[in-house]
Task: inverse folding
């Protein structure tokens, strides 16, 4: 039998870092990449030959914004998992989360959440009071979601989508550039697309036990969610298409329309994974794991960046 050092055992009990890090969900930081949207679509203003050093300070500010949202998001995940720990224990996958499984003590998670909230807001101070206001609004909205709004049918998916829009707004404020309202609309619809299909995945996976895990799932049906998914998919495609040839900050020759096929394929591929492969529960994992979808996103980013840099 292996002996355990009393000192080591005490340190592990006080500071279970591996479990804490997993509970902070760094894998989901990809969602906060939406703060870079404004930087990507302002490349025409930022990368002017007359101002070769303009883009670097903007990139650094965008990275600080990303760090602030990642810190706040980790705090929100801890709060959410503390609130949902009993329901998570009845879920086939979520029961393995550190708090639900008992690996991470609730007291440690609470202290870490407070520290992360404070750290995130302090980071936000560096980008000015307007950015800090949006960041604080995002944190308040997500707290309201964890305690109240996640239990309101349809409101729950709308709040998730609004969270993505706030990230996009904060990204634009961080680097001090205007951003087209079309892009906000596309962000809202794209986030709704992911949220609706995530709800559908949960409903299908848990079947009759869905309501026991999350009461709000009793208010949904696969038929309703299929209808919502179809509506949001069509609206997302239309909004992005209109954005490519009507936004003021895009090339006047409408060359950005070249990127529309990437968006079509990305939406279709995601629906294929949801309906044919029974995936969709973790959008961030799908994006990283599914090579065709990852390649599509990469090509979209590269193509959009080149078009925005070359055409006026």
Result:
């Amino acid at each position: 039998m292996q002996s355990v050092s009393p000192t080591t055992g005490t340190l592990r009990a006080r500071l279970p870092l591996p479990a804490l890090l997993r509970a902070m969900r760094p894998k989901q930081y990809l969602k906060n990449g939406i703060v870079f949207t404004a930087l990507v679509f302002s490349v025409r203003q930022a990368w002017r030959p007359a101002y070769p050093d303009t883009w670097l300070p903007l990139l650094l500010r965008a990275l600080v914004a990303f760090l602030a949202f990642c810190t706040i998001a980790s705090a929100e995940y801890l709060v959410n998992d503390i609130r949902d720990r009993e329901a998570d224990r009845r879920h086939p996958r979520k029961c393995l989360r550190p708090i639900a499984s008992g690996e991470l003590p609730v007291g440690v998670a609470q202290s870490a959440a407070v520290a992360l909230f404070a750290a995130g807001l302090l980071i936000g101070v560096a980008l000015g009071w307007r950015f800090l206001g949006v960041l604080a609004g995002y944190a308040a909205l997500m707290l309201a979601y964890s305690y109240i709004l996640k239990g309101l049918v349809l409101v729950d998916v709308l709040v998730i989508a609004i969270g993505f829009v706030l990230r996009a707004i904060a990204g634009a404020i961080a680097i001090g550039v205007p951003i087209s309202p079309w892009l906000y609309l596309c962000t809202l619809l794209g986030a709704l697309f992911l949220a609706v299909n995530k709800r559908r995945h949960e409903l299908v996976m848990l079947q009759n036990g869905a309501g026991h895990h999350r009461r709000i799932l009793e208010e949904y049906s696969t038929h309703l969610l299929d209808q919502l998914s179809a509506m949001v998919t069509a609206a997302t495609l239309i909004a992005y298409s209109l954005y490519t040839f009507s936004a003021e900050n895009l090339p006047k020759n409408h060359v950005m329309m070249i990127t529309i096929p990437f968006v079509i394929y990305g939406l279709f591929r995601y629906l294929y994974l949801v309906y044919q492969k029974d995936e969709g529960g973790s959008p961030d994992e799908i994006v990283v794991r599914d090579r065709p979808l990852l390649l599509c996103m990469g090509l979209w980013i590269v193509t959009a960046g080149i078009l925005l840099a070359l055409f006026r």
